[in-house]
Amino acid sequence: MKTRAAVAFEAGKALEVIEVDLEGPRAGEVLVEIMATGICHTDAFTLSGDDPEGAFPAILGHEGAGIVREVGPGVTSLKPGDHVIPLYTPECRTCNFCLNPKTNLCQAIRETQGQGVMPDGSSRFSLDGKPLRHYMGCSTFSNFTVLPEIALAKVRQDAPFDKICYIGCGVTTGIGAVVYRAKVEPGANVVVFGLGGIGLNVIQGARMVGANKIVGVDLNPAKRELAMKFGMTDFINPGEVDDVVEAILDITGGGADYSFECIGNVNVMRQALECCHKGWGESYIIGVAGAGQEISTRPFQLVTGRSWHGVAFGGARGRTDVPTIVDWYMDGKINIDDLITHTLPLDDINQGFDLMHKGESIRSVVVY
Ligand code: NAD
Ligand code: DAO
Ligand code: ZN
Q1: Residue partners of 349: CB distance under 8 A and separation at least 6
Q2: Is 343 a residue whose pLDDT tops 90?
Q3: Smaller CB count within 10 Å for the chain: N or C?
Q4: CATH number at residue 344
Q5: What pTM, to 2 d.p., does this model score?
């Protein structure tokens, strides 16, 4: 079949919206009509050429929602008409990672997904007979796409696509880090570095579980108002204090029980560790640093009881947890609407990237 898609032909170049060829689903695969997709920093990171796994030409996009249109042989858990959210972190439920309760990093299709192909090693997308690469196993910048069955979460049918697409990455990454990975308990003091599309979701996750202090740290004072609406109790602008770590120790009465780095800055990652409470404070890295960058601290920080962790996709097991997060949205327990600042047609997708680079959007969503 033919489908319209925004194709990344080369690193550093704008996407081109064109018609491409899409082969139907093979065994274990599903054809999905994408109804809406968010534009995330990771798409921009790959498009910039800085992503070591980035390969071109490719169809980017990993934060979508849509409708199953056809299933390949052997698919049992989905049928045409089901509403789904694509999962860049799949959940096969049988690999040794899925069977270990300590991780959500299913490895069933990791290698081929990283290469931009389907699990059988081939691409379903092509242009003029030449293959185009898939991206993060999702390629939601195409109106129709093919995914493995294990990379689709089935969700309720009354949830709006243009909002729940954000659960495919940003919402789950932020809220999940609090709920599934760190398991923040009521009354804990939480510090969030970076109040963008991820950090604001960490804040609302912390509020949802009943955290005490929720301290937000951002260089941009304009982030304060929205973060307060999402549950932030205290704001620190690093440009206005002598020492960010000292300021956090003062506000929290000794340090964070949990801190989250949502920027991707290795110097801030150090602050996020060192603002943790002596004896028990836990710091979680969410931000993705540039290729080759390294973190450092004095080992005595760890000897004295602080600990350093990282988390991908909020520690969520997508097929199991994503439908629950959709319920939280539909039940009014979490706010997605105020984070979606711009809605665009596919033809204007490059404007969404511009808004992100200028810091003018939290999330732009393309509606097909
Ligand atoms: P964003 O640009 O929307 O937000 C970053 C915020 O950090 C901005 O508000 C900015 O003003 C602030 N900031 C920048 N430098 C700062 C500094 N030195 N001190 C304080 N504040 C500073 O980005 P986002 O969409 O929220 O994504 C954040 C990070 O999370 C990115 O690195 C992204 O790649 C990563 N990410 C990780 C996962 C995961 O699973 N681990 C998933 C999605 C995104
Ligand atoms: O190695 O098992 C693996 C897969 C790791 C993928 C983690 C991706 C999380 C960070 C990238 C940001 C996603 C939008
Ligand atoms: Zn698995």
Answers
A1: 6, 15, 17, 39, 141, 366
A2: yes
A3: N
A4: 3.90.180.10
A5: 0.97
